[in-house]
Amino acid sequence: MAQTPIDKPYEIRKSRIMSVDIMRGLTIAFMILVNDPGDWDHVYAPLRHAEWNGWTPTDLVFPSFMFIMGCVIPFSLGSRLDRGAPPGELLAGIVRRSLILFGIDILLALFPHFDFAHLRVLGVLTRFAVCYLVCGALFLKVRDTRVLCGIVAAILVLYWAMLRFMPIPGIGMPGVDVAYLDDRNNIVAWVDRAFNDFCQRWFHFGHLYRIYRDPEGILSTLPALCTVLIGIVSGLVMKAASRNPAAPAVRRWALGGVGIFVLSFVVNAFFPFNKNIWSSSFVLLCAGIDIMALYALYILIDVRQVYRTSAAVRGFMMLSIIFGSNAIVAYCVSEFGSELLWEIPVMPQGQGIGEWVYRTVFAHWGSTEPTSLLYACAYVALCFIPSFVLWKKKIVVKI
Question: Could you list the residue ranges that cross the membrane (predicted)?
Fold first, then answer.
Protein backbone atom coordinates (compact mmCIF):
# COMPACT_ATOMS: atom_id res chain seq x y z
CA MET A 1 0.00 0.00 0.00
CA ALA A 2 1.31 3.44 -0.88
CA GLN A 3 2.34 5.54 2.05
CA THR A 4 -0.04 8.44 2.78
CA PRO A 5 1.02 11.62 4.57
CA ILE A 6 -0.78 10.52 7.72
CA ASP A 7 1.40 7.42 7.88
CA LYS A 8 4.70 9.29 8.01
CA PRO A 9 4.85 9.76 11.80
CA TYR A 10 4.68 6.00 12.14
CA GLU A 11 8.03 5.58 10.44
CA ILE A 12 9.27 6.57 13.89
CA ARG A 13 6.97 4.56 16.12
CA LYS A 14 5.17 1.87 14.16
CA SER A 15 3.81 0.03 17.21
CA ARG A 16 1.40 2.84 18.07
CA ILE A 17 -2.33 2.84 17.49
CA MET A 18 -3.15 6.15 15.82
CA SER A 19 -6.13 6.98 18.03
CA VAL A 20 -3.91 6.94 21.13
CA ASP A 21 -1.47 9.45 19.65
CA ILE A 22 -4.31 11.65 18.38
CA MET A 23 -5.97 11.76 21.79
CA ARG A 24 -2.64 12.60 23.42
CA GLY A 25 -2.08 15.45 20.97
CA LEU A 26 -5.55 16.87 21.56
CA THR A 27 -5.05 16.62 25.31
CA ILE A 28 -1.72 18.47 25.37
CA ALA A 29 -3.12 21.19 23.08
CA PHE A 30 -6.13 21.69 25.36
CA MET A 31 -3.84 21.66 28.42
CA ILE A 32 -1.79 24.54 27.00
CA LEU A 33 -4.97 26.38 25.99
CA VAL A 34 -6.50 26.37 29.49
CA ASN A 35 -3.16 27.09 31.21
CA ASP A 36 -2.32 30.20 29.19
CA PRO A 37 -5.18 32.67 28.78
CA GLY A 38 -4.42 36.26 27.96
CA ASP A 39 -6.19 37.49 31.09
CA TRP A 40 -7.12 35.29 34.05
CA ASP A 41 -9.87 37.74 34.96
CA HIS A 42 -11.56 37.07 31.62
CA VAL A 43 -11.85 33.32 31.06
CA TYR A 44 -14.92 31.41 29.91
CA ALA A 45 -16.37 29.25 32.71
CA PRO A 46 -15.72 25.89 30.95
CA LEU A 47 -12.04 26.85 30.67
CA ARG A 48 -11.68 27.30 34.44
CA HIS A 49 -11.17 24.64 37.08
CA ALA A 50 -13.95 23.99 39.58
CA GLU A 51 -13.12 25.75 42.85
CA TRP A 52 -13.95 22.70 44.98
CA ASN A 53 -16.75 20.16 44.37
CA GLY A 54 -18.03 19.75 40.82
CA TRP A 55 -16.19 19.63 37.52
CA THR A 56 -15.62 21.48 34.28
CA PRO A 57 -14.14 20.31 30.94
CA THR A 58 -10.83 21.84 32.07
CA ASP A 59 -10.73 19.47 35.05
CA LEU A 60 -10.61 16.53 32.63
CA VAL A 61 -7.36 17.57 30.96
CA PHE A 62 -4.76 16.44 33.49
CA PRO A 63 -6.46 13.07 34.19
CA SER A 64 -6.78 12.45 30.44
CA PHE A 65 -3.04 12.98 29.99
CA MET A 66 -2.38 10.47 32.79
CA PHE A 67 -4.89 8.04 31.28
CA ILE A 68 -3.04 8.24 27.96
CA MET A 69 0.27 7.68 29.76
CA GLY A 70 -1.22 4.47 31.10
CA CYS A 71 -2.48 3.46 27.65
CA VAL A 72 1.02 3.73 26.21
CA ILE A 73 2.66 1.52 28.86
CA PRO A 74 1.48 -1.82 27.35
CA PHE A 75 2.85 -0.71 23.96
CA SER A 76 6.22 0.51 25.27
CA LEU A 77 7.05 -1.70 28.25
CA GLY A 78 4.79 -4.53 27.12
CA SER A 79 6.35 -4.79 23.68
CA ARG A 80 9.84 -4.91 25.18
CA LEU A 81 8.75 -7.62 27.59
CA ASP A 82 7.33 -9.57 24.64
CA ARG A 83 10.75 -9.34 22.97
CA GLY A 84 12.41 -10.81 26.04
CA ALA A 85 13.83 -7.70 27.70
CA PRO A 86 14.83 -8.41 31.34
CA PRO A 87 12.34 -6.91 33.84
CA GLY A 88 15.24 -5.54 35.88
CA GLU A 89 16.46 -3.56 32.89
CA LEU A 90 12.98 -2.18 32.29
CA LEU A 91 12.59 -1.28 35.95
CA ALA A 92 15.85 0.67 35.81
CA GLY A 93 14.47 2.58 32.82
CA ILE A 94 11.23 3.32 34.70
CA VAL A 95 13.19 4.70 37.67
CA ARG A 96 15.41 6.78 35.39
CA ARG A 97 12.47 8.29 33.53
CA SER A 98 10.64 9.05 36.78
CA LEU A 99 13.69 10.84 38.19
CA ILE A 100 14.05 12.90 35.01
CA LEU A 101 10.37 13.93 35.13
CA PHE A 102 10.79 14.90 38.78
CA GLY A 103 13.93 16.87 37.95
CA ILE A 104 12.15 18.75 35.16
CA ASP A 105 9.30 19.59 37.53
CA ILE A 106 11.73 20.99 40.11
CA LEU A 107 13.39 23.08 37.39
CA LEU A 108 10.00 24.40 36.26
CA ALA A 109 9.12 25.25 39.86
CA LEU A 110 12.37 27.18 40.32
CA PHE A 111 12.39 28.98 36.96
CA PRO A 112 12.94 31.89 36.44
CA HIS A 113 13.73 33.31 39.90
CA PHE A 114 15.31 30.19 41.48
CA ASP A 115 13.86 30.99 44.89
CA PHE A 116 14.70 27.77 46.74
CA ALA A 117 13.00 28.95 49.94
CA HIS A 118 9.60 28.79 48.20
CA LEU A 119 10.26 25.71 46.08
CA ARG A 120 7.10 23.71 45.36
CA VAL A 121 8.11 20.05 45.41
CA LEU A 122 4.66 18.82 44.41
CA GLY A 123 3.51 19.49 40.87
CA VAL A 124 2.13 18.12 37.61
CA LEU A 125 5.28 16.33 36.45
CA THR A 126 6.04 15.11 39.97
CA ARG A 127 2.67 13.37 39.96
CA PHE A 128 3.46 11.96 36.53
CA ALA A 129 6.80 10.72 37.86
CA VAL A 130 5.34 9.01 40.93
CA CYS A 131 2.45 7.43 39.04
CA TYR A 132 4.68 6.22 36.22
CA LEU A 133 7.13 4.74 38.72
CA VAL A 134 4.47 2.86 40.70
CA CYS A 135 2.24 1.80 37.80
CA GLY A 136 5.14 0.95 35.50
CA ALA A 137 6.73 -1.26 38.16
CA LEU A 138 3.36 -2.90 38.86
CA PHE A 139 2.85 -3.58 35.15
CA LEU A 140 6.09 -5.58 35.08
CA LYS A 141 4.48 -7.97 37.58
CA VAL A 142 0.77 -7.79 36.78
CA ARG A 143 -0.74 -7.70 33.30
CA ASP A 144 -4.07 -9.38 34.00
CA THR A 145 -6.83 -6.84 33.36
CA ARG A 146 -9.12 -8.37 36.00
CA VAL A 147 -6.45 -8.11 38.68
CA LEU A 148 -5.67 -4.52 37.71
CA CYS A 149 -9.38 -3.61 37.86
CA GLY A 150 -9.57 -5.21 41.30
CA ILE A 151 -6.64 -3.10 42.49
CA VAL A 152 -8.35 0.05 41.17
CA ALA A 153 -11.60 -0.80 42.96
CA ALA A 154 -9.79 -1.50 46.24
CA ILE A 155 -7.86 1.79 46.12
CA LEU A 156 -10.95 3.87 45.33
CA VAL A 157 -12.96 2.32 48.18
CA LEU A 158 -10.03 2.69 50.59
CA TYR A 159 -9.56 6.34 49.60
CA TRP A 160 -13.23 7.13 50.24
CA ALA A 161 -13.07 5.38 53.62
CA MET A 162 -9.99 7.40 54.60
CA LEU A 163 -11.65 10.74 53.85
CA ARG A 164 -14.94 9.72 55.43
CA PHE A 165 -13.85 7.90 58.58
CA MET A 166 -10.22 8.73 59.37
CA PRO A 167 -9.85 11.27 62.21
CA ILE A 168 -7.92 14.39 61.22
CA PRO A 169 -5.15 15.06 63.78
CA GLY A 170 -5.87 18.17 65.79
CA ILE A 171 -9.20 18.70 64.03
CA GLY A 172 -11.45 15.73 64.67
CA MET A 173 -13.77 13.34 62.87
CA PRO A 174 -15.17 14.26 59.44
CA GLY A 175 -18.91 14.76 59.56
CA VAL A 176 -18.84 15.15 63.36
CA ASP A 177 -16.26 17.71 64.46
CA VAL A 178 -15.80 19.24 61.04
CA ALA A 179 -17.86 19.21 57.84
CA TYR A 180 -17.27 16.20 55.61
CA LEU A 181 -15.02 17.27 52.71
CA ASP A 182 -14.41 20.72 54.10
CA ASP A 183 -12.00 22.34 51.65
CA ARG A 184 -9.39 23.06 54.34
CA ASN A 185 -10.07 20.55 57.07
CA ASN A 186 -9.78 17.14 55.45
CA ILE A 187 -7.15 14.42 55.75
CA VAL A 188 -5.76 15.14 52.27
CA ALA A 189 -5.09 18.79 53.05
CA TRP A 190 -3.71 17.88 56.47
CA VAL A 191 -1.15 15.50 54.93
CA ASP A 192 -0.12 18.16 52.41
CA ARG A 193 0.44 20.71 55.17
CA ALA A 194 2.34 18.18 57.28
CA PHE A 195 4.61 17.34 54.34
CA ASN A 196 5.22 21.00 53.60
CA ASP A 197 6.00 21.72 57.27
CA PHE A 198 8.47 18.82 57.27
CA CYS A 199 10.25 20.19 54.19
CA GLN A 200 10.43 23.68 55.65
CA ARG A 201 11.70 22.44 59.01
CA TRP A 202 14.39 20.07 57.73
CA PHE A 203 15.30 21.33 54.28
CA HIS A 204 14.31 25.03 54.52
CA PHE A 205 12.10 25.00 51.44
CA GLY A 206 8.46 24.29 50.78
CA HIS A 207 5.41 25.80 49.17
CA LEU A 208 1.88 24.58 48.48
CA TYR A 209 -0.12 25.63 45.44
CA ARG A 210 -2.81 26.70 47.86
CA ILE A 211 -1.82 27.87 51.32
CA TYR A 212 -3.68 25.03 53.01
CA ARG A 213 -3.56 22.24 50.37
CA ASP A 214 -2.10 21.21 47.04
CA PRO A 215 -4.06 19.77 44.08
CA GLU A 216 -1.09 17.51 43.30
CA GLY A 217 -0.59 16.53 46.93
CA ILE A 218 0.66 13.40 48.65
CA LEU A 219 -2.48 11.48 49.54
CA SER A 220 -4.45 12.44 46.44
CA THR A 221 -1.76 10.73 44.35
CA LEU A 222 -3.24 7.43 45.54
CA PRO A 223 -6.44 7.68 43.43
CA ALA A 224 -4.38 9.27 40.63
CA LEU A 225 -2.65 5.89 40.37
CA CYS A 226 -6.05 4.46 39.46
CA THR A 227 -6.34 6.84 36.52
CA VAL A 228 -3.08 5.45 35.12
CA LEU A 229 -4.04 1.84 35.91
CA ILE A 230 -7.34 2.24 34.04
CA GLY A 231 -5.27 3.58 31.15
CA ILE A 232 -3.06 0.47 31.33
CA VAL A 233 -6.14 -1.77 31.17
CA SER A 234 -7.32 0.19 28.13
CA GLY A 235 -3.89 -0.12 26.54
CA LEU A 236 -3.87 -3.88 27.07
CA VAL A 237 -7.27 -4.17 25.39
CA MET A 238 -6.23 -1.97 22.47
CA LYS A 239 -2.95 -3.83 22.04
CA ALA A 240 -4.90 -7.08 21.75
CA ALA A 241 -7.33 -5.34 19.39
CA SER A 242 -4.47 -4.37 17.09
CA ARG A 243 -4.15 -8.09 16.34
CA ASN A 244 -7.89 -8.76 16.26
CA PRO A 245 -10.05 -5.61 15.80
CA ALA A 246 -13.26 -7.63 16.13
CA ALA A 247 -12.30 -9.09 19.52
CA PRO A 248 -15.24 -9.14 21.99
CA ALA A 249 -12.94 -7.61 24.62
CA VAL A 250 -13.01 -4.31 22.71
CA ARG A 251 -16.80 -4.07 22.90
CA ARG A 252 -16.75 -5.07 26.57
CA TRP A 253 -14.15 -2.38 27.22
CA ALA A 254 -16.31 0.26 25.51
CA LEU A 255 -19.42 -0.83 27.43
CA GLY A 256 -17.30 -0.78 30.58
CA GLY A 257 -16.51 2.86 29.88
CA VAL A 258 -20.22 3.65 29.69
CA GLY A 259 -20.79 1.72 32.92
CA ILE A 260 -17.97 3.53 34.72
CA PHE A 261 -19.37 6.87 33.57
CA VAL A 262 -22.83 6.04 34.95
CA LEU A 263 -21.33 4.64 38.17
CA SER A 264 -19.43 7.89 38.74
CA PHE A 265 -22.73 9.75 39.20
CA VAL A 266 -23.89 7.15 41.73
CA VAL A 267 -20.64 7.53 43.70
CA ASN A 268 -20.93 11.31 43.39
CA ALA A 269 -23.95 11.18 45.71
CA PHE A 270 -21.72 10.33 48.70
CA PHE A 271 -18.23 11.25 47.42
CA PRO A 272 -18.62 14.32 45.18
CA PHE A 273 -16.68 15.00 41.99
CA ASN A 274 -13.58 16.89 43.07
CA LYS A 275 -10.35 17.29 41.12
CA ASN A 276 -8.60 19.04 44.02
CA ILE A 277 -8.56 15.81 46.01
CA TRP A 278 -8.97 13.49 42.98
CA SER A 279 -12.08 11.93 44.51
CA SER A 280 -13.08 8.38 43.61
CA SER A 281 -16.14 9.64 41.71
CA PHE A 282 -13.87 12.01 39.77
CA VAL A 283 -11.57 9.12 38.82
CA LEU A 284 -14.55 7.16 37.49
CA LEU A 285 -15.99 10.16 35.66
CA CYS A 286 -12.73 10.91 33.85
CA ALA A 287 -12.07 7.25 33.09
CA GLY A 288 -15.54 6.78 31.62
CA ILE A 289 -15.23 9.85 29.41
CA ASP A 290 -11.70 8.94 28.32
CA ILE A 291 -12.62 5.36 27.44
CA MET A 292 -15.64 6.47 25.41
CA ALA A 293 -13.63 9.17 23.63
CA LEU A 294 -10.74 6.83 22.86
CA TYR A 295 -13.09 4.10 21.64
CA ALA A 296 -14.81 6.57 19.30
CA LEU A 297 -11.43 7.66 17.90
CA TYR A 298 -10.35 4.02 17.60
CA ILE A 299 -13.43 3.07 15.58
CA LEU A 300 -13.22 6.13 13.32
CA ILE A 301 -9.46 6.19 12.80
CA ASP A 302 -7.98 2.74 13.29
CA VAL A 303 -10.90 0.59 12.19
CA ARG A 304 -12.86 2.63 9.60
CA GLN A 305 -9.87 4.80 8.60
CA VAL A 306 -12.08 7.77 7.71
CA TYR A 307 -8.97 9.92 7.16
CA ARG A 308 -8.33 8.15 3.85
CA THR A 309 -11.40 9.77 2.30
CA SER A 310 -11.31 13.21 3.95
CA ALA A 311 -8.56 15.80 3.54
CA ALA A 312 -9.97 17.81 6.46
CA VAL A 313 -9.77 14.81 8.77
CA ARG A 314 -6.23 14.06 7.57
CA GLY A 315 -5.14 17.60 8.36
CA PHE A 316 -6.73 17.51 11.80
CA MET A 317 -5.08 14.17 12.51
CA MET A 318 -1.70 15.37 11.37
CA LEU A 319 -1.83 18.35 13.71
CA SER A 320 -2.86 16.10 16.62
CA ILE A 321 -0.23 13.46 15.93
CA ILE A 322 2.54 16.03 15.57
CA PHE A 323 1.58 17.66 18.87
CA GLY A 324 1.31 14.31 20.61
CA SER A 325 4.56 12.87 19.27
CA ASN A 326 6.59 15.01 21.69
CA ALA A 327 3.98 15.80 24.33
CA ILE A 328 6.42 16.37 27.20
CA VAL A 329 8.48 18.71 25.01
CA ALA A 330 5.33 20.68 24.14
CA TYR A 331 4.36 20.91 27.82
CA CYS A 332 7.82 22.07 28.90
CA VAL A 333 8.01 24.62 26.06
CA SER A 334 4.64 26.01 27.14
CA GLU A 335 5.62 26.25 30.81
CA PHE A 336 9.08 27.75 30.29
CA GLY A 337 7.75 30.05 27.57
CA SER A 338 4.92 31.29 29.74
CA GLU A 339 7.31 32.15 32.57
CA LEU A 340 9.58 34.02 30.17
CA LEU A 341 6.75 35.92 28.55
CA TRP A 342 4.91 36.95 31.70
CA GLU A 343 7.36 36.90 34.61
CA ILE A 344 10.48 38.56 33.20
CA PRO A 345 9.92 42.31 32.68
CA VAL A 346 11.32 43.44 29.33
CA MET A 347 9.21 46.49 28.51
CA PRO A 348 9.99 50.00 29.81
CA GLN A 349 6.81 49.97 31.94
CA GLY A 350 7.95 46.79 33.69
CA GLN A 351 5.56 44.62 31.69
CA GLY A 352 6.49 41.19 30.47
CA ILE A 353 6.41 40.81 26.71
CA GLY A 354 3.43 38.47 27.00
CA GLU A 355 1.33 41.08 28.76
CA TRP A 356 2.48 43.76 26.33
CA VAL A 357 1.56 41.64 23.31
CA TYR A 358 -1.81 40.78 24.81
CA ARG A 359 -2.70 44.37 25.71
CA THR A 360 -1.37 45.79 22.44
CA VAL A 361 -2.39 43.19 19.87
CA PHE A 362 -5.27 41.15 21.27
CA ALA A 363 -6.92 43.47 23.80
CA HIS A 364 -6.20 46.86 22.31
CA TRP A 365 -9.86 47.88 22.73
CA GLY A 366 -10.29 46.13 26.09
CA SER A 367 -9.82 42.69 27.61
CA THR A 368 -12.73 40.27 27.20
CA GLU A 369 -13.27 36.53 27.23
CA PRO A 370 -12.90 36.30 23.42
CA THR A 371 -9.62 38.27 23.39
CA SER A 372 -8.24 36.17 26.25
CA LEU A 373 -9.16 32.96 24.42
CA LEU A 374 -7.70 34.26 21.17
CA TYR A 375 -4.35 34.88 22.89
CA ALA A 376 -4.44 31.34 24.32
CA CYS A 377 -5.08 29.89 20.84
CA ALA A 378 -2.15 31.90 19.46
CA TYR A 379 0.08 30.59 22.25
CA VAL A 380 -0.94 27.00 21.45
CA ALA A 381 0.08 27.65 17.83
CA LEU A 382 3.42 29.06 19.02
CA CYS A 383 4.09 25.99 21.16
CA PHE A 384 3.24 23.79 18.17
CA ILE A 385 6.26 25.03 16.23
CA PRO A 386 8.97 23.07 18.17
CA SER A 387 6.86 19.91 17.90
CA PHE A 388 6.53 20.42 14.15
CA VAL A 389 10.28 20.93 13.73
CA LEU A 390 11.02 17.74 15.70
CA TRP A 391 8.44 15.80 13.71
CA LYS A 392 9.90 16.98 10.40
CA LYS A 393 13.30 15.75 11.56
CA LYS A 394 11.73 12.46 12.71
CA ILE A 395 12.91 13.08 16.27
CA VAL A 396 10.98 11.79 19.27
CA VAL A 397 12.49 13.03 22.53
CA LYS A 398 12.47 10.05 24.88
CA ILE A 399 12.92 10.64 28.59
Answer: 21-40, 60-78, 90-111, 117-140, 147-166, 218-241, 253-271, 277-301, 313-333, 372-391
